[in-house]
Amino acid sequence: MGALTAIGPVSIDMYLPAFPSIATGLNATHSQVERTLAIYLIGMSVAQLAYGPLADRYGRKPPLYGALSLYIVASAGCAIAPNIEVLTASRLLQAMGGAAGMVISRAVVRDHYDTQEAARALSMLMLIMGVAPILAPLIGGQVLALTGWRGIFVLITVSAIILLWTVSRVMVESLRPDRVIPLSWSSILHNYSQLIRNGKFVAFAMSGAMGSATMFGYIVSSPRLFIDYYGISSQSYGLLFGLNALCLITGSQVSARMLKKYRPVQLLPWALRAMMLAGLSALGLTLSGSVTLTILMGCMMAFMFCQGFVGPNSAAMALSEQGNRLGSASALLGTFTIASGACAGFLVSLASETGPLPMALILGGCTTLSWLIGGIARRRP
């Protein structure tokens, strides 16, 4: 399940060090190369909606076979792309294949565990989500130095082939026959309309999505802020990026331990308040002109620690009591998460301000929204 969950961050982060090389190799602009990342996020956001109903009808394994096969072919297409247009199209197909891993891994967790145990299991998956962004750029950079940018996609292709073989040999089908839903346009629309009208599901899903939006805003704005504005080296930037990911990992594992004693609904209020405090501190100090790199990093690390609580616990609460709509619920949850992050990243990229204000606005605004929406979720029957 961890490997399936890691498909998303690995596909996003591993090729980031190769952006200049891709631009040179394909005679493309940097904006065109950056667009391949935006296309990937859009494809992953939309494709998740298809895998939910498929997983509820055909089980968890069959959709994975098709999705991973598509992911393998698309990754190979990225490796041999003769121009930026083919690379962009291949990245879109790669996202459509990779989206299944995130949807089905969450559904499998809920198939096996109740809400509290699911939150603990999702915290372990958050560990993978935290480690992947640290290791992926480092591995990508080494592969880039040894083989060039195409070698990164060759490595992704080979890894996906191994993952497909592992799924076929190790993974056990977890969908019970009594929870199978007939597949039709009417049933798909009915399930999603029921979920959208489920205020508790939407509120918990969006509360977690606002935390993810903050992370994407940070990912987009941090290179320009830390390297161009504060003037730190690329190596130091990598260290700061790793420290934030380490805080996310630590938070998720502390959450997993605390879930042995407390329920997710008990942990969420405290985590949301602390997360908002970190965000508003960053915004207030930035607006007052007294923020420094050290202070900003402290606020960001505190946010990441809290997100390690908020992410898995809000997901577990959103997926609770979904019954035979679990696959669709997991898909819609993923769409909310990726779409919110893509919007936040897009807004940050539009800012002409090179200082800390764009990041601080996202940090303060999204964490406040997460707290407000989380409060609404807890009051829903």
Description of the molecule:
The chain crosses the membrane at residues 37-55, 64-84, 121-140, 152-172, 201-221, 236-255, 267-285, 291-310, 331-351, 357-377. Keywords: Cell inner membrane, Cell membrane, Membrane, Transmembrane, Transmembrane helix, Transport. Belongs to the major facilitator superfamily. Bcr/CmlA family. Its main location: membrane. This is Bcr/CflA family efflux transporter. By secondary structure, this protein is an all-alpha fold. It contains 14 helices and no strands. The longest helix is centred in the middle third of the chain and has 33 residues, at 115-147. It is 84% helix and 0% strand. The chain folds into 2 domains: 1-174, MFS general substrate transporter like domains (Growth Hormone, Chain: A); 184-381, MFS general substrate transporter like domains (Growth Hormone, Chain: A, Up-down Bundle).
Please give a handful of descriptors for the protein shown.
mainly alpha, Growth Hormone, Chain: A, 2 domains, 84% helix, globular
N-to-C SSE series?
Answer: HHHHHHHHHHHHHH
CATH class of the largest domain: Mainly Alpha
Q: How confident is the prediction overall: mean pLDDT?
A: 83
Query: What is the CA-CA span between the terminal residues?
Result: 31 Å
Structural class: mainly alpha
